[in-house]
From TrEMBL:
<dbReference type="InterPro" id="IPR036249">
    <property type="entry name" value="Thioredoxin-like_sf"/>
</dbReference>
<feature type="domain" description="Thioredoxin">
    <location>
        <begin position="6"/>
        <end position="123"/>
    </location>
</feature>
<keyword id="KW-0575">Peroxidase</keyword>
<dbReference type="InterPro" id="IPR000889">
    <property type="entry name" value="Glutathione_peroxidase"/>
</dbReference>
<comment type="similarity">
    <text>Belongs to the glutathione peroxidase family.</text>
</comment>
<dbReference type="Pfam" id="PF00255">
    <property type="entry name" value="GSHPx"/>
</dbReference>
<protein>
    <recommendedName>
        <fullName>Glutathione peroxidase</fullName>
    </recommendedName>
</protein>
<dbReference type="InterPro" id="IPR029759">
    <property type="entry name" value="GPX_AS"/>
</dbReference>
<feature type="active site">
    <location>
        <position position="44"/>
    </location>
</feature>
<dbReference type="GO" id="GO:0006979">
    <property type="term" value="P:response to oxidative stress"/>
</dbReference>
<dbReference type="InterPro" id="IPR029760">
    <property type="entry name" value="GPX_CS"/>
</dbReference>
<dbReference type="GO" id="GO:0004601">
    <property type="term" value="F:peroxidase activity"/>
</dbReference>
<dbReference type="InterPro" id="IPR013766">
    <property type="entry name" value="Thioredoxin_domain"/>
</dbReference>
<keyword id="KW-0560">Oxidoreductase</keyword>
Length: 123
């Protein structure tokens, strides 16, 4: 995950991230929308309720400027061990997820400001 500009990021819209297929996504495309940025996991005790409620929220509000940006994370108890392809298959088949699913992240990097170009979960 990297900042879209060379200066310090000021908002979520200043970042470029990778989607689950490895494509770069400039989050500025979501300017003007209400965003729910959420970490997800397929083997968490709350997986069924979380994915079900995310799908319901998205269906209800997607036509009103609402977007869910789902970031898989394996950081908490190894509850998301799957590959990006497996994660997308799971979310889209089992829970009919229509919102974007991104590359696995470290929530520590995402939410505690350790956002450096070239950051890898393997570090």
């Amino acid at each position: 995950m990297a900042a879209a500009t060379s200066s310090s990021p000021k908002s979520v819209h200043d970042f470029t991230v990778k989607d689950a297929k490895g494509n770069e996504v400039d989050l500025s495309i979501y300017k003007g929308k209400v965003l729910l940025i959420v970490n997800v996991a397929s083997q968490c005790g709350l997986t069924n309720s979380n994915y079900t409620e995310l799908a319901q929220l998205y269906q209800k509000y997607k036509d009103h400027g609402f977007e869910i940006l789902a970031f898989p994370c394996n950081q908490f108890g190894n509850q998301e061990p799957g590959s990006n392809e497996e994660i997308v298959q799971f979310a889209c088949t089992r829970f009919k997820a229509e919102y974007p699913i991104f590359d696995k992240v470290s929530t520590f990097s995402l939410f505690f400001g350790v956002l450096t170009p070239g950051f890898s979960l393997d570090q």
